[in-house]
Design a protein that fits this description.
Elements: H1 23-30, E1 35-36, E2 38-44, E3 47-53, E4 57-60, E5 65-71, H2 77-83, E6 85-90, H3 96-103, H4 109-112, E7 115-117, E8 124-126, E9 131-143, E10 146-158, E11 164-167, E12 170-173, H5 201-223, H6 227-236, H7 243-250, H8 254-266, E13 270-272, E14 278-280, H9 282-303, H10 308-321
Antiparallel strand pairs: 1-11, 2-3, 2-6, 4-5, 5-10, 6-9, 7-8, 9-10, 11-12, 13-14
Helix pairs in contact: 5-9, 7-8
The protein binds flavin mononucleotide.
Length: 325
């Protein structure tokens, strides 16, 4: 058999280097690994304690072990070490606000999420989570500025629902990969004939949205921003805003918002107003204008060649499918 030479283009990294020299870039690199989101809780005397955690990982089936890592400075850490029992609540896609409250040390976090005490651990089990794992603290290992807590799972419960995800500094939901439901070949329900028009409507919608979003990424890169920075610029375009409010408005994680703001300030695109809120400078507003202009041009290009009456009809269908608020 003749070996065929496969031509290979060398992939250039967007950023690379020593993690200690560029901690923000290093964090972005780690953010390429998608995780779920958990809230880990314990009962410290009468006080419920809990924090958002995405460093959770499965370790072993026999014995049943899991791990997570906690910042040494975390105010909740002494409670976890003293009680030596905790519960992992795997959050559902509807629980972004719960993650934000437990990720910011919100004083009212336990009144924002209904819960009951676990029978094995006594730790708060949050309603609407997709899984509960009640654990006994098995081991604590050193991990730089974090400690690694290993838990022995004594009781588990799985619930219906779809998990909340966290990747590239932002919340996400799990969906089938577009390649897994190619709309040109997906015949829809088994009994339906395999023609294009019978492809499931939601499949067509998802594929179109995925393709448009991937293509628009290139336009963002040309302007010199990524998805995270462009969301922050868009929100600041509506007026000055504090970092916590930005976190809620953009659905980004706290670190991602902080990093984007630090970069925008360093590059002279954002600053602080007299109340300490962030606002765009003249160059930041220009980036916002370029993003809006680019979005309009891009949409125009994508729709060119489609009759206006079809576009109007598609718009009516999409608006009719929007949730009524
Ligand atoms: C999605 C998400 C994941 C997080 N993952 C971790 C983690 O794995 N370990 C950690 O120590 N903190 C993590 N945090 C931050 C803590 O939840 C946050 O610092 C919390 O407010 C700690 O509160 P405390 O200082 O009152 O204990 C995460 C926050 C979010 C929003």
């Amino acid at each position: 058999m003749n070996a065929t030479a496969v031509s290979r283009t060398v992939q250039e990294p967007i950023e690379a280097g020593d993690p200690r020299a560029e901690p923000r870039a290093f964090r972005r690199c780690l953010g390429q690994f998608a995780t779920g989101v958990t809230v880990i809780t314990t009962a410290h005397g009468d006080t419920p304690v809990g924090m958002a955690v995405n460093s959770f990982a499965a370790v072993s089936l026999d014995p049943p072990l899991i791990l997570w890592s906690v910042r040494r400075e975390s105010r909740s850490l002494p409670a976890f070490l003293e009680t030596a029992r905790f519960a992992v609540n795997v959050l559902s896609a509807d629980q972004v606000e719960v993650s934000q409250a437990f990720g910011s040390g919100h004083p009212e976090r336990f009144s924002l999420a209904p819960w009951s005490a676990g029978t094995h651990s006594g730790a708060p089990l949050l309603d609407d989570a997709v899984a509960h794992l009640e654990c006994r603290l098995e081991a604590v290992h050193e991990g730089g500025d974090h400690l690694i807590l290993v838990g022995h799972v004594e009781q588990y419960a799985r619930f219906d629902g779809s998990p909340l995800l966290f990747a590239q500094g932002t919340y996400a939901v799990a969906d089938d990969h577009p390649a897994g439901h190619d709309s040109t070949t997906d015949p829809g329900p088994a009994e339906a004939p395999a023609t294009d028009t019978d492809a499931l409507f939601t499949t067509l919608l998802k594929d179109a949205a995925h393709r448009m979003s991937t293509l628009f990424d290139e336009h963002r890169h040309t302007i010199g921003v990524n998805d995270v920075t462009s969301r922050v610029v868009n929100r600041l375009g509506a007026g000055p805003c504090g970092s916590e409010e930005l976190e809620h408005a953009t659905y980004l994680g706290r670190r991602a918002v902080e990093d984007a703001l630090a970069e925008l300030v360093e590059q002279g695109h954002a600053g602080r107003d007299p109340h300490g809120r962030y606002e765009l400078t003249a160059s930041g507003r220009r980036i916002g204008q370029r993003l809006r202009h680019s979005a309009r041009m891009f949409t125009g290009q994508q729709l060119s060649g489609i009759p206006e009456a079809d576009i109007a009809a598609a718009r009516r269908v999409l608006l009719a499918l929007q949730p009524s608020s």
